[in-house]
């Protein structure tokens, strides 16, 4: 049995600079984004018409109800300790056990160094950082890691995860996963962050990117086992060539010493969430790319410097010191290199010969992910969030229609769809009087945070719709273009995903503790709490259910946090019957139309988790925690299918004070080991339908 984290170490967890996230995660994942000034200093808060409807649909909530539903036994992974704070109550409520998909015993908030799942479910580690992917790659040996080993092994800090059909073998599936960032001080022995060796730097470069891994499915248990060296297996790293594609390709803004054509960028960085297109390719968002570039403070290109400031660039040396090995990470030498990051990338997991693309038509910002949907006429729509405090939500609508079928011709056509289309940014208007949105989270008199919105056109092909910006400037400096047209400043828009069942779009707004502070924008109806620690889920309905529509209605489905607190809202569902949820990050849907939400940085003191939320009927707003990830980890992925749920447990043990010599988690390998980010597959213990 793996012991629980000693109390001495557990005490280090919860005092945190930013919600539930550790200082180590802030440093290596986001480049301490929250410690810096808000990059959006634009004065574009929208003051459009506020329409008071005074429709009281649901009445006001009363605070002080009992604490949330915290129930059920927990199965712990790899012999780890079970959740310590489970109260053992039943999850059956006066509302029944929930609709199809939500019929499981909710997992209690806990601080276990384990993956905790409901009774009757089995968690299985599919693949861990350092496991071999390519033919000839060695087994994981952290004491003797090399750049060459890492380039053939599963990368670090798995985030977006997809589980696809295998093209020609029904017993197999194709797992695609990206690798957001590295924490060298926890990965590598003898690591001196002031003076990393060239090999240590090259290991870091190789541990970024994406992995494609064929897995074999056990038909009896549903366990997934990697097939090392399979023909589809690939590693994409921070040095893999990417074709720069779409309307900004070849722009002077993208040219560097090594690439005078502005046509090929090396590698992808800080890939966060993503999406799977209807034609079977993977989209992945380049997020906090600014942190990899050094010498902003001393760069001499004043115009470029001013523009980079809007993307959060600052300071001198970078945290990882890659600039010491590769001058492209030195802004004094290569001021345009960062313009080649911050894109949505597209990878075809079924075609290893096809070079991955950077899709400039989808704009450049700190892309969280990309949620595609087909319009009725066959055009593809992609919804996207820019994960920064007070930044924006976007959508792209393709010009051409998707061709169905799997012919080579259809595939080649579809792989160009994201190069031509129109890019929009969102503006939200509340329908309640501004005076009723007081920043406390108290519901307005119509009983809902809701209203209308519009998509504002930014650029289409080579046409710009933003005064003073050429089209290529809109694509490369998308944040500044959106500032100009009066987009709504949101509370860190993360995943934006359309429901395959209803077409409604769900937005995870993770938190924004700067809302309403100093000169920052104050609460509005879509972002109704000042100093917002716990975030909200926004539900968006496009006009006539047409994703190419330019107007929409919206409401807040969840205002997250402690259900017992007056400032939380769970879709109108009784708050004494729900699980506490904080800092929503990624969203997915089960086959029955329920929403699944993973969290990052739980500010309520528990480990992060995965939650299922009913969207329709009398159960709308019922929220149940399905699993928790190990201490210090974030719940990424997720994949939600009828019989499989996969989460990428990112940065286990990443707590303040953790290092290679002082690991604060032993998950998943047990005593004496360092923690390893890993993909976990959860099935019922009889490999039946989940939540039924
Ligand atoms: Fe990488 Fe927005 O989380
Ligand atoms: Ca309202
Ligand atoms: Ca994320």
From TrEMBL:
InterPro entries cross-referenced by the UniProt entry: PhoX, TAT_signal
Organism of derivation: Glycomyces mayteni
PANTHER family: DUF839 DOMAIN-CONTAINING PROTEIN, SLR8030 PROTEIN
Superkingdom of this protein's organism: Bacteria
Pfam families: PhoX
Name assigned to this protein: PhoX family protein
């Amino acid at each position: 049995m793996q012991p629980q984290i000693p109390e001495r170490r557990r005490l280090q967890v919860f005092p945190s600079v930013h919600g539930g996230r550790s200082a180590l995660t802030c440093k290596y994942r986001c480049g301490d984004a929250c410690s810096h000034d808000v990059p959006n200093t634009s004065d574009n808060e929208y003051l459009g018409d506020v329409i008071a409807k005074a429709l009281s649909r649901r009445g006001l909530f009363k605070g002080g109800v009992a604490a949330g539903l915290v129930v059920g036994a927990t199965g712990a992974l790899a012999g780890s300790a079970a959740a310590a704070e489970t109260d053992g109550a039943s999850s059956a409520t006066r509302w029944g056990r929930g609709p199809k998909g939500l019929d499981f015993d909710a997992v209690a908030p806990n601080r276990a160094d384990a993956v905790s799942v409901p009774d009757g479910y089995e968690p299985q580690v599919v693949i861990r950082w350092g496991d071999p992917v390519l033919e000839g790659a060695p087994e994981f040996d952290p004491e003797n890691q090399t750049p060459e080993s890492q380039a053939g092994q599963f990368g670090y800090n798995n985030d977006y995860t997809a589980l696809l059909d295998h093209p020609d073998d029904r017993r197999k599936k194709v797992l695609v996963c990206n690798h957001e960032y590295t924490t060298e001080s926890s990965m590598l022995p003898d690591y001196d962050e002031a003076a990393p060796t060239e090999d240590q730097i090259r290991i870091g470069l190789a541990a970024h990117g994406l992995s494609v891994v064929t897995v074999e499915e056990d038909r009896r248990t549903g366990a997934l086992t990697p097939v090392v060296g399979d023909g589809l297996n690939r590693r994409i790293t921070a040095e893999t060539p990417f074709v720069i594609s779409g309307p900004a390709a070849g722009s002077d803004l993208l040219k560097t010493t090594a690439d005078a054509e502005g046509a090929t960028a090396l590698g992808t960085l800080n890939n966060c969430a993503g999406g799977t297109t209807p034609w079977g390719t993977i989209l992945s968002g380049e997020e906090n790319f600014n942190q990899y570039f050094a010498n902003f403070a001393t760069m001499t290109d004043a115009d470029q410097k001013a523009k980079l400031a809007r993307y959060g660039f600052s300071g001198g040396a970078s945290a990882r010191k890659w600039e010491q090995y590769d001058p492209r990470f030195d802004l004094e030498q290569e001021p345009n290199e960062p313009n080649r990051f911050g894109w949505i990338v597209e990878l075809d997991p079924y075609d290893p010969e096809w070079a991955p693309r950077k899709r400039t038509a989808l704009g450049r910002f700190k892309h969280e992910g990309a949620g595609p949907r087909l319009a009725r006429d066959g055009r593809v729509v992609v919804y996207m969030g820019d994960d920064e405090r007070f930044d924006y939500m976007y959508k792209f609508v393709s010009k051409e229609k998707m061709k169905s079928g799997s012919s080579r011709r259809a595939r080649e056509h579809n792989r160009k769809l994201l190069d031509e289309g129109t890019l929009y940014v969102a503006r939200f208007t509340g329908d309640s009087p501004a005076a009723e949105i007081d920043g406390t989270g108290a519901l307005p008199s119509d009983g809902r945070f809701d209203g209308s919105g519009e998509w504002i056109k930014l650029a289409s092909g080579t046409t710009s719709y933003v005064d003073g910006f050429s089209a290529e400037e809109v694509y490369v400096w998308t944040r500044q273009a959106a500032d100009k047209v009066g987009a709504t400043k949101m509370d860190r828009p993360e995943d934006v995903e359309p429901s395959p069942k209803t077409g409604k779009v769900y937005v995870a707004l993770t938190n924004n503790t700067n809302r309403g502070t100093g000169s920052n924008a104050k609460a509005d109806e879509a972002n109704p709490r000042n100093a917002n620690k716990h975030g909200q889920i926004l539900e968006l309905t496009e006009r006539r259910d047409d994703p190419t529509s330019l107007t929409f209605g919206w409401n807040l489905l969840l205002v997250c946090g402690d259900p017992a607190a007056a400032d939380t809202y769970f879709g109108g569902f009784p708050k004494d019957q729900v699980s506490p949820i904080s800092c929503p990050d990624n969203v997915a849907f089960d086959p029955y139309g329920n929403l699944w939400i993973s969290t990052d940085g739980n500010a309520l003191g528990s480990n992060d988790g995965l939650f299922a939320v009913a969207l329709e009927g009398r159960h709308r707003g019922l929220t149940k925690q399905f699993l928790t990830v190990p201490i210090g980890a974030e719940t990424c992925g997720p994949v939600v299918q009828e019989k499989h749920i996969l989460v990428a447990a990112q940065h286990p043990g990443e707590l303040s004070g953790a290092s290679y010599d002082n690991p604060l988690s032993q998950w998943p390998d047990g005593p004496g080991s360092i923690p390893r980010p890993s993909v976990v597959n959860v099935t019922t213990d009889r490999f039946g339908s989940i939540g039924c």
